């Protein structure tokens, strides 16, 4: 028996739901890449990306996924042999660190646990010990999508300032931009990067990087630069230089429609929406956890992310739950990744997501817990509704 026929719910933390209007924006013939509206659209996209990163710095658009964005950020400011400090809080910070290592940086990981945020005091202590300022850049992820941790970027910047350390602060905002506050300039972030397919509600395939004046200065001497990613080339006057080749034009039309949606809602309103949906999700998980099998991966409530919740399943294979929701209900949850396979599932509340989508997802999970006779506190969905109705008055 199954009740899965109907609109399928994709509740994974990327790629996220693509709004119909964004899909429709791609249903059109190809356009000229040398003249006409595409050229103006590039300028408008680059300007709107500044509004979303909250920076007066330069922005860049790459035909690439998030990994490409990582590489773009690294190649433009680092030189081979540079000492880089990666702040561990889950799988993604380590992934970026591994990439830097392969590219020729000397990478040090400030080790951390995957159920708590980076400790700014530990960052300050490590930087203070670096008397010769050999560390050239810090790599940190704002929301680690594997662990569900949110890192406090302003606190990490304060730690760098307290240590009077000149390293560049480089932030991965792939799972956070558009979902929670990010203030590149106000927070003193030097390089930020993201992808199109999470909070920005567009199919995968575009990466965005923003760089401030300190990053530009590092760029001048960086010797990891390669032609495709090179900021200097991409600032050239010819339109094709902005993409180092043919613009990924259908994805650009899609991204245009998605940014119109996001800026139409208002960034602050989108952050608030994510906060409410996240709190509703946590209310349900808290209830379920009374049965001792379900628990939060992130111990400290303030360190739980606005865009994704990592739910631990203790003593039972978590695939039982995710298989049930997918096969019986048509709801695909995120699996545990990076060591969490079989031990956790992830609920995305990221991007183009509203109350019924989150309540439907939570309802399917609660249905799975009941059908599988997994011990859990009842009333998780009711708790989510109470949280949302209190947050959204009539
Ligand atoms: C998804 C994600 C990435 C990687 O993006 P890809 O498009 O899969 O390369 C990097 N960092 C974070 C935090 C992510 O969530």
Give a brief outline of the structure:
Helix content is 40%, strand content 16%. A hairpin with a 4-residue loop joins β6 and β7.
Q: Which terms summarize this structure?
A:
Aspartate Aminotransferase, domain 2, 394 residues, alpha/beta, 14 strands, binds pyridoxal-5'-phosphate, single chain, five-stranded mixed beta sheet, seven-stranded mixed beta sheet, Aspartate Aminotransferase, domain 1
Give a structural overview.
By secondary structure, the protein is an alpha/beta fold. The chain has 2 domains: 9-16 and 267-391, Aspartate Aminotransferase, domain 1; 31-263, 3-Layer(aba) Sandwich (Aspartate Aminotransferase, domain 2), CATH 3.40.640. It is built from 13 helices and 14 strands. The chain has helices at residues 20-25, 37-53, 66-77, 91-102, 120-129, 153-162, 213-221, 231-234, 249-265, 267-288, 319-329, 355-371, 380-391; strands at 9-11, 58-63, 83-87, 106-110, 135-141, 143-144, 149-150, 168-172, 191-195, 206-211, 294-296, 308-313, 331-335, 344-348. A 7-stranded mixed β-sheet has the order 2-10-9-8-5-3-4, with helices on both faces. The chain has a 5-stranded mixed β-sheet with strand order 1-13-14-12-11, with helices on both faces. Helix 9 (249-265) crosses helix 10 and helix 10 (267-288) packs parallel to helix 12 (355-371). The protein is globular, with a radius of gyration of 21 Å. The protein binds pyridoxal-5'-phosphate. Pyridoxal-5'-phosphate binds next to helix 3.
